[in-house]
Fold:
Amino acid sequence: MMDKNIVKQIRDKAKELLSNGTIKCVLGYETGTDGMNARPAFIYEPEDVDRLIFDNTCTHNLSTYLRDKRENPVAIVVKPCDARAINVLLGERQIEREKVFIIGIVCQEVVQVSWGELSHDAQMRCKICNQHTPVIYDFLIGGPVDESAPKAEPPANVTAMEGKSSGDKVDFWSGQFSKCVRCYACRAVCMGCYCTVCFVDMLDPEWVGIKIATPENQMWNTIRAFHLSGRCIGCGECARVCPVNIPLDLLNMKMEKEVGEHFEFVSGLSSEEPAPLASFLKDESLGIGE
Amino acid sequence: MSRIGVFVCHCGRNIAGTVDISTVVEAAKKLPNVVYVEDNKYTCSEVGQDVIKKTIEENQLNRVVIGACSPRMHENTFRKAVASAGLNPYLLEIANIREHCSWVHSDDKEKATAKAIDLVKMAVAKVARHQELFPKQVGLTKRALVIGGGISGIQAALDIADAGHEVFLVEREPTIGGRMAQLDKTFPTLDCSACILTPKMVDVAQHPNITLLTYAQVLKVSGFKGNFEVEILQKTRLVDHDKCTGCGSCWQKCPQKVASEFDFGLGNRKTIYIPFPQAIPNKPVIDTSNCRYIKYQGWEKDSKGKKPPECRICEKVCPTDAVDWGQKDEIINEKFGAIVVATGFKTFDHTTYGEYGGGRYPDVITGLQLERLMSASGPTEGEVIRPSDGTHPKTVVFISCVGSRDDHIGRSYCSKVCCMYMAKHTIMLKEHDPDIQSYVFYIDNRTGGKGYEEFSRRAQEEAGALYLRGRISKIYRDGPKMMVCGDDALMGRPVQIAADLVVLATGMDPSDGVVELAQTLNISYDTNRFLIEAHPKLRPVETQTSGIFLAGVAVGPRDIPDCVAHGSAAAVKVVGLLSQDTLTTDPMTSIVDPAKCVGCFMCEDVCPFSAIYRETTRDGRPVAIINETLCTGCGLCVASCRPGAIDLHGYTNQQLLAEVVSLCR
Amino acid sequence: MPVDFQPKIIGFLCNWCSYAGADMAGTSRITYPSNIRIIRVPCSGRIDPLFIAKCFTEGADGVFIAGCHPGDCHYIEGNYYARRRFALMGDLIEYLGIEKERYQVRWVSASEGKKFSQIISAFTDKLAALGPRIKG
Amino acid sequence: MNKITSKKDLASWLDGLMKDKVLIAPAFVDNQSVFKHVANVAEITFDFKNTALSVKEWFFPATEPLFTIHQKDGDTTLEPIDIENEFVLFGIRPCDAKGLKLLDKVFLGAPTDTVYAERRDKTTLVGLSCLEPSPQCFCNSMGTAPNNADDVDIMLTEVVDGYIVEAVTDKGKALLSVAKLSNSKLSVPKIKCPTELQVKNVPEAMKSCFEDDYWARIADRCIHCNICAYVCPVCHCFDIRDYPTSEKTERIRCWDSCQSPGFTCAAGGHTPRPTKASRLRQRFYHKLLYFPERFEDFQCTGCGRCVALCPVNIDIREIITDVPKLGEKSATKA
Structure:
């Protein structure tokens, strides 16, 4: 279900920016080779803007490409979740605000996407989302949305997991991590994973053994989640791209829940707020020490 | 390829009594890269150390592990021993098999031995990853900056200068002397404040090593310990102090009077003035906001009021043409090796308290105002009279803890000196006029200090001051009298006193602008805006920014003797620093791999010592760089560095991982 | 679970307070179970939470971390940052099914030798009762 | 005349095999079809789309020890890995079978990869035709077909009330000796997969567009994960590292991918393929030019896994179609 009006606005803005030389490239969406699901598109020429589309299959968080493109000014099409990612990148000094023209799109939900199949079920993260208008943009597309909806509860599956016994947790996770083939798609697709050399690829110190086996896989997935805590904006791409269906977002959502409860911090709402792990309150106990 | 030698110490029976040394030795022999193992009775002894030296040479060892007591005990001893054999002293690792093993597991020899083996194993794994480390030498500027010309700053400046180092003393006011200069007498000896202070002020002015900058302010500070670069603003005085002789004809003739800040408005000064007769420098400044000629120059046709007279009398009467209307603010840039911050205090603003009249009653004054009234060089030449009508007060009420120990006005701390100066005041009043009866309303009478309690007694017994425990609920005017209503907590009854004069024992607030200064210097301050010491007990004059020291009330309320001691203490630290020819940096600092750094600068955010700065690589990436002089080797940045671009010499990720892995696999 | 199960415990101690505290336990000859193996670090703020995960991956039954009491950090703020990291890492490993009793962060000053030995004794007993982390 | 077996008989046959052989068969785990060890026939699913991971992991596992090293007072001994069990791999699709055939060219050519060889040798492949290929499938274009029996030992094709059974190799015949078969007039239906591609000129065309910025444009989208390589039945790059413990040291081999930045990283940190574009190009040049030049066949079986699983829809079919056009383009330029 494509909204003609939104698409037209995107194309017009893209054409304008490319023609007047404000930017060199537009990061947007086009229709994929299955003819139904969107894929990322990079538009360099005004005459190509008609490739751009927007619909509820535009699940990709395009901000993950911004570091690749930081040499020249670009425009980027963002959903509200992706907009928070941009704040994170700005806060971590990875991109320059003046080099990014943000085309923000008011978004209700995106659907579960898998190649060759057209789904109508909203993604779980969208069901608990209450940020329908981008927190940062230069050009907004789409009408205002009632944001008065109650603050999202921590997702049910997280609380369910918390409720399990240690034994059941171990069984569940070792089951999941035994499937992991360490293709690192979760890392590659994540806007927050931009280290030059990921800890998992380091030979010395060898944080994670080379074996693609459950303990090593668990170490990798544990630290991936930890390194993203306080930085993950819940775009759910990690879980989407996992070829063996490990529910990685279950880890990230847990960490964001804890970050929220411990430090009253929600990642990506602003680029000014100090990162939760780069700040502290003297008199917080966090149930540590005594 | 590392060739590791392991030395296992018996420490007499201390270790050998519990740990089976021979088993440890055998196990050590099997460890990777270990080429030599030996045990000694006392490895730390002369003999033991010689064995280490000898063995290193004979077996070409390039790493050494010593299983002995805690590294906190003998690490340096053994580093020296290793170094004397020509090996880099940092190629040593100590396995703590005494404090962490034999002494705490004496109940199970077998397990203790097993643990000792593990600890040695871990040390071997770690030492294999040790690198040669070399302390760096950096030069320093042998010159100190003292900020604040009160008694603390003066003391620090004089002591540093006497030790033979150059000192710049920067004071914001036109004169040095600070609060002490405003006092008439000091407790508990009652010697005249000026008599003991002014000689020191003169010393400052005359000291060949001291450059005095009054009417000046520190604007910017960059650099680090040993090499600070400081930008100082010299405000214009409109008087050329090189020409001026301080003859005083200008301020005698100046027609424009304004209320004197020095006398808290109890008296007047001129617009060309020195704050008080013994001011140092004893040369005037022109108060540009009130000077008639400045106003005249600034006057324009359309501006309201009639044109002020041109005046310029000071210029006319000056025998040396020192008045210089063209003089401008000046920026002075200097380098310093160390900085002392002695910015002192101001008295608490008592108008906060409505119940004490909120400043509406002229006869409700502060302790410092009373000092000015009693001072022979003060506005009344030492005659204690009521500001309202000039009559001599007979009944004087003192109220303690005004702006101290009161959470409601955000002053939870005790100002420390008030109890004592109230006692002093009552005694001095009695001396001024035997008919004066003093009443002191106190919360607690705190007289800690040499001769202080005796002094307080004297106030009560000889000066007959009446001490009443309790707070004052209200003061109001009743005819000529000030009615003071409170309660006598000990008697448990309300009291009301018809006073002629009420003196508020106002507490101490940090000086204005101290927060801005702290931020420029990158030192921290507490919720009351007092500056924070590096350690409240063990490092009372240092800050967490090395090379910057603290003195006096800027750190927290204290009396004159404490300030003088504090100033000297700071001076000693400065002298200790400046007496070195170069600064040696501990090589166990963090180091950045620019190739891995992604420029998120989380390290910069967490570093408590601002030891991290930004640099741009050849390929144009902003990356973090460590300033080894400032880095203390805490490793906070290392653990905050997601990309693993930072590591800590001596405790690298490789080394700590090697310990973990060697233990587990 | 074997009756005489000996838990493998790795401890990270900050040099200025906790390591000294452990030394104090030694100089005061206060005995405690021998299972813990101590790794010396300059500050609890040096401990990258990765080490905690690594210890468990490598088969540790328990991980112990100690630093200066808040406010007493030799490096002024190290333990404040550490506290936040360790809190999060604790939540995470518990979520993954590692009993939270297997992971302790405590503040131990240089004078608290007794406290240190008591903590370690209790911790060791607890882990012995829990049994091996990697079952079978 | 074809041989046919009823579903019931097939089941009992498989049951029988499990006595002395390890049976690997498709089953659903977390509602995803995978090949796994099965303990009884009930676990097996006979109706499944292509599994996420190909069967290559059963011959070339994600991680495997090549041998172990023992050091005892001074002298070092190597202990080879031996594979005791015999395996039956049931349900393999022709595309995956073709994949194994291509892997054989790499691993069985001199020098022979002994571990791989032994696994291949001890495994019998029982193929299962794919009756309804998925939209991403293009095996016909890659020299096989949804019911091609060339690369398996036994081929099964589901028909009304059972399976048509073809014993392809002696290995297959031996295994079938215990199966209950009957004659049938039914014949194997012709099945085609949806996409037909013109591949003939592709290698030639590839030669002329190495420098084309086409690759950079595709790479814009690429996030350089390793999915395409790891799900591919033919990708076979690996990394080797030692895993030391206090008793022994294992020499480990594990999957690696030309898409990961560290892949070509040499000592000292230099990387010949520093950009996403150069790595992505390498992937397709290997599949569509270098491999054919060396082994007279594309390094692709048309299984469509990379097409379906690429998170950003980098579609090898699109590239196969585009490349010849690029050739013409550059030709006209010249």
